[in-house]
């Protein structure tokens, strides 16, 4: 046990701490990027799936296939597909870019389902009232449904963001320098696996735990507030 | 000349036939009451008239124009000519009373906010809610919410107002305030189709009353005939049961 | 993009991949069962238990839920040998996934326990049900119905999660994809086929679970 702490002390150099902090920042940035762009595209897909009429069936089909595909393929496999697609496509991009594209694809699929569930949580009466007053689908969603649905959408979306912080650990496999990769580097530099990955586990915990508490608070607050 | 005409209109939810060859016409400025047991198709007629349900056969004509339910433009026209007030009010919970009334004219019809606001305030005053403009629906009683819903419908300047059991969800002491509002509209010459279980009110306000059962109009006539001297057994049966209560 | 897909080289490996998928399903199933065992005990402790045991369970759940499964397995696989505990890569993955599942399933089941409806239990008590009968006829059917959809959902997520076993050299579906890739270098072909197999396998699992839930608990679950 004494060896553990002396090793920990020798790990705590200025450069290592900065390296660790940068890794943590990359982890957060990767998740946030996936959730923000994914939320945007996901909302579009959710709306696409609510369209009706035979003219828009290709739109619905695309949204369905996209969400089902990327929700049913493991993160690691999607990551490899993106990685090789860029490589064989002849695009010379950084691994970080590959990681970003991957999280946006996956984020879009999962957030599309969260947004769709939120939109559908609004009582059908509200849809009917808007339809009877000649609102278009987009007007109905923009002025009537989203203002009521966002309190339903936000807690699970935030939960997904926290989940993504941990799932994005897999990006280390293609060499994205995020938290898990930092742990592997420490380990390769001769620090024991216990110390290297122990520190990384702790770092993830310090990111995820406060956020999950915040998420729980958010859910409570939105759950009891009025639907406006 | 009839302003609104339904000609042999039939409709179904899946396999369940809910309207079966409906013949009904409403003249301009006329109030027609629809009565009948639950599930007889009264409210379904209103859903057809707002384009929420597409008839399988038959035709609907408004001001002489036949509505093609497969054409979005026709559905839009239909919805511009009619306004519906629902049993459950269906106010937008996220908007204030005033915004509820103004949103469709502004966003759907693209009218000027200042102009709409003046009208909306007038209408809300007319239904007795001038002091509730900034309230949210969940701060109002059922009767107040229903009057907001009527104002919201009127602000669309409909040619025909459809009222779907607008007092059914209200506590008894709140019913009269809503009925008073509707009475005023009838006196002003609004064309209305009213579905209601308030038999006394239907009798008083309607020019003609249609008794419906099993998706059909069983009997159509002046209120006095329907309520006092019905021709059909089913009408007599229904009216007898209702009036005994 | 002037890449030409050549699936011809990869097709012969299909039976090899399907055997890998079978191993993925086994890992997910074993880890889920182990996780259910841990989760049920921990959820019971969290709901009914006292002071210390509750804190211990809380610490376990909070730690595993807030750290990545991948790093947990790294720790088990690379750090435990320093303490004299040697796990095969398969065992490290299975243990990591089980512990991780235990934490998530504790949370899911606790929410289910808490959804017991007081009014129904009172009604059962007034009707003269014994405590055991209350559990048998009122609590269990309700809790099972509430829990089935989120548990099914987690099972699907766990099936996808098994793919990280590949990183430790376990030859499940993704691991075999890496193997074929290093032999044929038809990366996009291999991984796209593997992706479709995952979609297929989880879709079948979703449909089966939804059907089972419908008949056993009258739950309404949407597959897509």
UniProtKB/TrEMBL annotation, chain A:
It is a multi-pass membrane protein. GO terms for cellular component: ATP-binding cassette (ABC) transporter complex. One of its GO terms (biological process) is amino acid transport. Its main location: membrane. Keywords: Cell membrane, Membrane, Transmembrane, Transmembrane helix, Transport. One of its GO terms (molecular function) is transmembrane transporter activity. The keyword Transmembrane helix applies. CDD domains: TM_PBP2. It is found in: Cell inner membrane; Cell membrane. Residues 24-212 form the ABC transmembrane type-1 domain. Pfam families: BPD_transp_1 (PF00528). The chain crosses the membrane at residues 28-48, 69-90, 96-119, 140-165, 191-211. Belongs to the binding-protein-dependent transport system permease family. HisMQ subfamily. This is ABC transmembrane type-1 domain-containing protein. It comes from Puniceibacterium antarcticum.
UniProtKB/TrEMBL annotation, chain C:
Its main location: membrane. It is a multi-pass membrane protein. The keyword Transmembrane applies. GO terms for molecular function: transmembrane transporter activity. It is found in: Cell inner membrane; Cell membrane. PROSITE patterns: ABC_TM1. The chain crosses the membrane at residues 20-45, 57-77, 83-106, 154-170, 190-212. It comes from the Bacteria. One of its GO terms (biological process) is amino acid transport. It holds the Pfam family BPD_transp_1. Residues 21-209 form the ABC transmembrane type-1 domain. One of its GO terms (cellular component) is ATP-binding cassette (ABC) transporter complex. Keywords: Amino-acid transport, Cell membrane, Membrane, Transmembrane, Transmembrane helix, Transport. Belongs to the binding-protein-dependent transport system permease family. HisMQ subfamily. Part of the binding-protein-dependent transport system for glutamine; probably responsible for the translocation of the substrate across the membrane. PANTHER family: GLUTAMINE TRANSPORT SYSTEM PERMEASE PROTEIN GLNP, MEMBRANE COMPONENT OF AMINO ACID ABC TRANSPORTER. This is ABC transmembrane type-1 domain-containing protein. The lineage of its organism: Bacteria, Pseudomonadati, Pseudomonadota, Alphaproteobacteria, Rhodobacterales.
């Amino acid at each position: 046990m004494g060896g553990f702490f002396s090793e920990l002390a020798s790990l705590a150099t200025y450069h290592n701490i900065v390296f660790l902090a940068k890794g943590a920042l990359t982890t957060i940035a990767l998740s946030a990027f996936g959730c923000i762009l994914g939320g945007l595209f996901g909302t579009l897909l959710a709306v696409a799936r609510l369209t009706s009429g035979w003219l828009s069936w290709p739109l619905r089909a695309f949204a369905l296939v996209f969400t089902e595909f990327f929700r049913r393929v493991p993160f690691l496999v999607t990551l490899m597909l993106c990685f090789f697609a860029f490589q064989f496509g002849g695009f010379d991009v950084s691994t970080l870019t590959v990681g970003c594209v991957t999280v946006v694809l996956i984020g879009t699929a999962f957030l599309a389902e969260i947004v769709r569930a939120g939109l559908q949580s609004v009582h059908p009466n509200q849809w009917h009232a808007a339809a009877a007053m000649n609102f278009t689908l987009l007007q109905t969603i923009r002025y009537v449904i989203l203002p009521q649905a966002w309190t339903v959408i936000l807690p699970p979306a935030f939960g997904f963001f926290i989940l993504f912080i941990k799932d994005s650990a897999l990006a280390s496999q293609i060499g994205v320098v995020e938290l898990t990769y930092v742990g592997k580097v420490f380990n390769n530099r001769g620090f024991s696996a216990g110390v290297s990955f122990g520190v990384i586990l702790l770092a993830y915990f310090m990111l995820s735990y406060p956020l999950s508490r915040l998420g729980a608070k958010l859910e409570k607050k939105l759950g009891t507030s009025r639907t406006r | 000349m009839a302003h609104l005409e339904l000609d042999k209109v039939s409709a179904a939810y899946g396999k369940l036939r809910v309207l079966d060859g409906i013949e009904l016409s409403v003249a301009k400025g006329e109030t027609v009451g629809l009565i009948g047991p639950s599930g007889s198709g009264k409210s379904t007629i209103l859903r057809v008239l707002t384009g929420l349900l597409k008839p399988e056969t038959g035709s609907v004509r408004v001001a002489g124009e036949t509505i093609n339910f497969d054409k979005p433009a026709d559905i839009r026209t239909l919805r511009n000519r009619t306004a519906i007030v629902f049993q459950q009010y269906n106010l937008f919970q996220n908007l204030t009373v005033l915004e509820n009334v103004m949103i469709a004219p502004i966003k759907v019809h693209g009218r000027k906010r200042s102009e709409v606001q003046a009208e909306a305030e007038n209408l809300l005053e007319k239904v007795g809610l001038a002091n509730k403009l900034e309230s949210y629906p969940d701060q109002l009683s059922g009767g107040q919410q229903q009057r907001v819903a009527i104002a919201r419908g009127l602000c669309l300047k409909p040619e025909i107002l459809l009222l779907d059991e607008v007092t059914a969800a209200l506590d008894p002491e709140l019913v009269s305030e809503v009925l008073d509002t509707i009475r005023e509209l009838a006196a002003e010459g609004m064309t209305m189709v009213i579905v209601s279980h308030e038999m006394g009110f239907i009798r008083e306000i309607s020019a003609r009353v249609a008794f419906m059962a099993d998706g059909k109009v069983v009997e159509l006539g002046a209120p006095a005939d329907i309520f006092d001297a019905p021709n059909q057994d089913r009408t007599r049966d229904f009216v007898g049961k209702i009036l005994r209560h | 993009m002037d890449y030409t897909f050549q699936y011809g080289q990869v097709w012969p490996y299909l039976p090899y991949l399907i055997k890998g998928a079978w191993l993925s399903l086994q890992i997910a199933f074993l880890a889920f069962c182990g996780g259910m065992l841990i989760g049920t005990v921990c959820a019971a402790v969290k709901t009914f238990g006292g002071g210390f045991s509750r804190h211990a369970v809380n610490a376990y759940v909070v730690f595993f839920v807030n750290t990545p499964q991948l790093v947990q397995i790294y720790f088990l696989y690379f750090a435990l040998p320093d303490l004299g505990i040697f796990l095969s890569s398969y065992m490290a993955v299975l243990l990591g996934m089980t512990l991780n599942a235990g934490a998530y399933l504790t949370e899911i089941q606790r929410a289910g326990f808490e959804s017991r409806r007081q009014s129904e239990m009172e009604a059962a008590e007034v009707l003269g049900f014994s405590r055991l009968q209350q559990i048998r006829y009122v609590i269990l059917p309700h809790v099972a119905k509430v829990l089935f959809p989120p548990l099914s959902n987690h099972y699907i997520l766990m099936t996808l999660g098994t793919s990280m076993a590949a990183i430790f050299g376990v030859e499940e579906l993704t691991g075999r994809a890496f193997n074929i890739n290093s032999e044929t270098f038809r990366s996009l072909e291999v991984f796209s086929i593997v992706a479709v197999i995952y979609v297929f396998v989880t879709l079948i699992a979703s449909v089966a679970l939804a059907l089972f839930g419908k008949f056993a608990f009258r739950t309404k679950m949407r597959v897509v």
